[in-house]
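ok here's TRI14-like protein:
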Amino acid sequence: MIRSPFWMLALASFPALSSCVRHRCPSPAGNLSVSAFQLYPENADFDPTRCVAYFSALYNSSVAVYDPYQNTVVDVIEFPGLSGNPLLHASGVQLDPFNRLSVVVNAGSSFNTGGRDISGNNWLVKYSLQEDRVLWQYNLTSVTAGAYSGFQDIEHDRHGNTFVLGTFPTSLIRVTADGKKATPWYLGPRSDPITAGFTGLVNIGDALVVSNVTDGQLYRFDITSAQGTPVRIPLTTAQGRIGGPIDGVYLPPRYAGKVILVSDNVNGTIVLRSSDAKWKTAERLGVIPNDLLAQGGSTVASIQIGDRVYAVTEFFGDSQQIVPGTLAGNRSAFPLIDISTQVEQLLC
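and the structure:
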């Protein structure tokens, strides 16, 4: 691990490892504000053993380790040869079943150009939290010889295999747990020009649920199949799109697989329910507004900390005013909005 002193890391406050169980971590009270220069979080995951959150720092291609109880970034994980490269962005971040961290570091050109330029390498990085080092990294671009790009989100099966989601155009790449083999598990049709497709995914046990910004729908994949086949999940409460520019998908642990949150960059957090947690159909219960839209904030992800659920906000517009000598804008405060009460109200 390479430390990043410019974030004034308070390493002494890092929680000691313990025999914590899921949901043991305390719940913060209300909204939080993460003070970290140029954090720009694109995705997030919570570690119920260490009681910390991991945020992908988009423009610096690193991962911030955040202690919500001290309200402090206590560490920054950087990846040699990748972090600090102006051509790369960090997006998906998630713990795998073996307590390792999976991180997607992608070619920023795909997103900067809306799919017009999908050149550049994209990486899946596997990081050992116990050994404090990169175990391996796989070049996702090589799997399709550069025909598919825009990789941005991650899920795992119970064996530790990683499914990496691509957006330009739609794809799902399956990488074995040891990082030795990657295959195109599902490749969507290519178009000219290339348009955005899949944006986020969650594992519901025997299946993946994926969001598609093209038609604003959710799709289900049998995770045990040799090749992926998308099946649209019909809405029982309304027809049409579930949202506008939809992004990340999240399965809050407190709801036992029955609730999915879909982030909509403009509108906020969309709440959906499957009463049997099988997600053969879904109810669209409503949307929790993006209160930071007027300030340039885009809702990109959700995260549960303790028993509280938070919306993660990104400020993409700051990239137009990069601080000289750095890779990102001049922002140091990044809000986490507590949406727990609003979720509960929609479920009633």
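+1. The first strand starts at residue 32 and ends at 35.
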